[in-house]
## 1
Amino acid sequence: MTRSGRPALAVVGATGAVGTVLLQILSQRADVWGEIRLIASPRSAGRKLTVRGEETEVVALTEEAFDGIDVALFDVPDEVAARWAPVAVARGAVVVDNSGAFRMDPEVPLVVPEVNPHTARIRPRGILANPNCTTLSMIVAVGALHAEFGLRELVVSSCQAVSGAGHAGVRTLREQLSLVAGTELGTGPGDVRRAVGDDTGPFADPVALNVVPWAGSLREDGWSSEEMEVRDESRKVLGLPRLPVAVTCVRVPVITVHSLTVHARFEHEVTVDGAREILATAPGVVLYDNPAAGEFPTPADVVGTDPTWVGRVRRALDDPTALELFVCGDNLRKGAALNTAQIAELVALPARS
Ligand SMILES: NC(=O)c1ccc[n+]([C@@H]2O[C@H](COP(=O)([O-])OP(=O)(O)OC[C@H]3O[C@@H](n4cnc5c(N)ncnc54)[C@H](OP(=O)(O)O)[C@@H]3O)[C@@H](O)[C@H]2O)c1
């Protein structure tokens, strides 16, 4: 089929951790795009990457790079998105931004196609935002339960993969693993820290053979930026501006897939059977929950897949209105690239929203 007459797409940040997965996803999904233009920093200009089976040259980020582009996906650091998304809009593109630059802007919808697709239609700034990967890794499952039961409170702990910190995060874990592999380390205070050295990359502490109760930067009263984002973004996506949300974010030595423990309290009493029925039929969710057979989602199995996986569904022992869940999602796919690709398709094919 010819691609002429179809909308043109730009991928800004095509060389990054999210951009790389986005190119795979664009090659796998139904092809709605005409030209796909790949954009990155001047460092990467001239590099050739493959998308839809075609070698495509990366061009540097400039104003002219957006000429003729209908939809521009931004997978770049916050400050780059803040500066260049309005440039793309001024050149006639609708921007779908994956950074944190616009997520809480009241004039920028925060879109999860399975939960609030209608919000993508009204975009006063010409920009749509993609939630943070931690929020996205659970919100499709939580949104499905909310639609049926009416959510009243969320208490969440994350186990976040290192690829949430981009290529630098992955590099750091791999280097640290090579330094501790085959040793007896992890048996005395500080032995792992001494082995991996002072440079812990984008993480506050060594991440190999360890867990680090920190993600993001320091906010008021000891909260991390990542924790505040999960709270603020869950409220915005679900349309519940006063929802009580308590979050603790933890980095774990997993390459890709964020996992979360979720305590969700609802308006009325809930049953496990009722919750299972909703989760088993919700678009974008897979219920994988048979602890007697040792069946529940783990990052090692979920990585590279699109859905939000849910297991360990239990009713809270001390509150018949609350459920306990364990949720896993690929932070680079649904947590980032897939959701932006889905939003871009809502823009290109508005009848879906
Ligand atoms: N990793 C995740 O799980 C995840 C999930 C959700 C959202 N996000 C967000 O998505 C964005 C990208 O994250 P990532 O993990 O893919 O980061 P990354 O691996 O560090 O990649 C960054 C990308 O941005 C480009 N870039 C950097 N500075 C630039 C500049 N001045 N001009 C043009 N391009 C520039 C890089 O191009 P070069 O290669 O040319 O330097 C690269 O393509 C961030 O805002 C991040 O917060 C990440």
## 2
Amino acid sequence: MVPCCPRALLLPLLLLLACPASRASQNCLNKQQLLTAIRQLQQVLKGQETRFAEGFRSMKSQLAALHHSVARAGPDSPPVSCPALNAPPDGRKFGSKYLVDHEVHFTCNPGFRLVGPSSMVCLPNGTWRGEQPHCRDISECSSQPCQNGGTCVEGVNQYKCMCPPGRTGSRCQHLAQTDVNECELYRQEGRPRLCMHTCVNTPGSYRCACPSGYRTLADGKSCEDVDECVSPQLVCPRGTMCINTGGGFQCVSPECPEGSSNVSYVKTSPFQCERNPCPMDSRPCRHLPKTISFHYLSLPSNLKTPITLFRMATASAPGRPGPNSLRFGIVGGNSRGHFVMQRSDRQTGELILVQTLEGPQTLEVDVDMSEYLDRSFQANHVSKVTIFVSPYDF
Ligand SMILES: *[C@@H]1O[C@H](CO)[C@@H](O)[C@H](O)[C@H]1NC(C)=O
Ligand SMILES: *[C@@H]1O[C@H](CO)[C@@H](O)[C@H](O)[C@H]1NC(C)=O
């Protein structure tokens, strides 16, 4: 950068000047030649001087620029950086600048999950905000599914809980059978009834069972009677009628009373008998039931009483004057004390159960209705009611 030193040019000049004037004629230049040489040297020097000056100017301007830029930079402070970070084992790190305010992000390889923050920031004091995270194996047990002190055992895509004594269930969520019998618990007074019929304790739980002839409803605790009579197979012998009862069925064959010389009955429907017309002069015949009908009822045990079980009404034929008075009564059967028969309106009487019934049992009660026209006896009708009481309250 600095122009070459002109010392190489000065040396011949000094030799020329050193030449003594007396010997100038031979080896030394004459005056004219000397002046020419000096002028040439002067021009050389001038050229050198110009190039020197240009070099210095360039150097000065560069220094000035440097000075300017240094002066413009803020107050002197060493750049702050945070310690280098590594990617967590089984994971990756994004970001390689550890200067203030720079962030570094972390992810985990497939099959692992990040425990800790997903990013860290370099703070002005040269420390990282946040703890460096690590990657943990994603396992079925990592959600800690086992409760109550159960131990999680890793399987293929599933886990198994080893339960401590007294605990059971897939997550040890249930008390084991030895500990609590739900059925016993709910048998106590004031508790809601767990099952309509039988409560069966199971490990950690319970289920309801229904007696034979009943099915368990969708709620898991109610029992519903099975109607055997609608089964496609015939359940009753030919000639008999199937009556569904609580938990079972009965085969019945209603029979008309035996006839005698003056009186005879004919079956007009499976459940009805009618008396043939009486001889003109036979008064006793006219007092025998004109119709006998058969009725079958199925009841649960322990029905709340009083309760009306059966109604009986007159049916006068069209065009004929009907009875203007009716009388009702219980005329037979094996259980009179349980029932009363009373008139409920002008046309109707009803059979009322007044005593609680407990099954299993079968009761029979015969009720009759006598028709009067202007106080004169007209006819009498009998209903034979058979009641099947189931052993259960349902
Ligand atoms: C650095 O700064 C943060 C927040 O300003 C602070 O919580 C932390 O204690 C500091 N660390 C040190 C070593 O000074
Ligand atoms: C049957 O009829 C005869 C007369 O035909 C009569 O004497 C008798 O009392 C009647 N018996 C009954 C049970 O009605």
